[in-house]
Amino acid sequence: MKIERKQIRHLEEPKTLKEKLYRLRYTLARRIVQFGLLFLFIGTARCGWTLFGKPILNGDLSTSRILDTIPLSDPFATLQRLCAQWWLSSETLIGAFFVLLIYIFVSGRSFCSWVCPMNLVTDASAWCREKLGLKTEFFHIPNWARYIVMVLSLLVSLVSGVAAFEAVSPQAMIWREIVYGIGLGFISTVFGVFAFDLAVAKRGWCGHVCPLGAFWATVGSIGQIKVQYDASTCSRCGDCLKVCPEPQVLNFNRASERGMVASGECTNCGKCIAICPENSLKFGLRSKVKHKKQNKIS
Fold it and tell me: What are phi and psi of 281, to 5 degrees?
């Protein structure tokens, strides 16, 4: 049964500081998490911060320890090292498994928008593109290109005996230099990715090239925290598509059938939820979504 299309409306510009903060609630939450983790790493490495007499957070995004007890390892870096035929300690494997379980629950590409330092750079570049009115791209990079880069990273690791992407990862370089000391590597990496996204391809690095994003998108396909979608209230104004860093995930017909944005490529950034005038989008558990075909808007 078809239902009548709702009158399309858009959210008005926020008039008060409270309204502005509410509109930006997920962006602010992401920045708090990103900078909070950075401060914990920096404070532990440079200032010797401790809790219960133990270092709070030692290491980097590749390998770290919480309170010198709980191991954490980047699963993709661990996979590269296994392909490179490295001998890995049981602690590293346990740490990778633990991190994998966390992101399976919160949905894999949450790492990209809530933790990865590169997100700050690419979001800044996207903001500049919008303010400068830049629409052109020198060449189109398909979304699936990052999966090719991911497979190549593993193959090169297997052949060379070196964790290929980990050795050149701009994310890892930025993080290490922020924590242990900023140098030319930080400056060149930030400027390079910023310029690439600004002048060459819109969200080119995170959206089309980064193999780490491809890995987490694969994991995210079975993630539990998803953006739920109510087709009966959606007027399809398209505002969510304008703010989404991965607009291809917002397939309304597919989301109506599943009751959620099921794609692992969704970063769970919350921008679509914050901008939706009908409150048709919200975070929820995958297990709570009723998998029944909803009435489509004519």
Answer: -120, 140
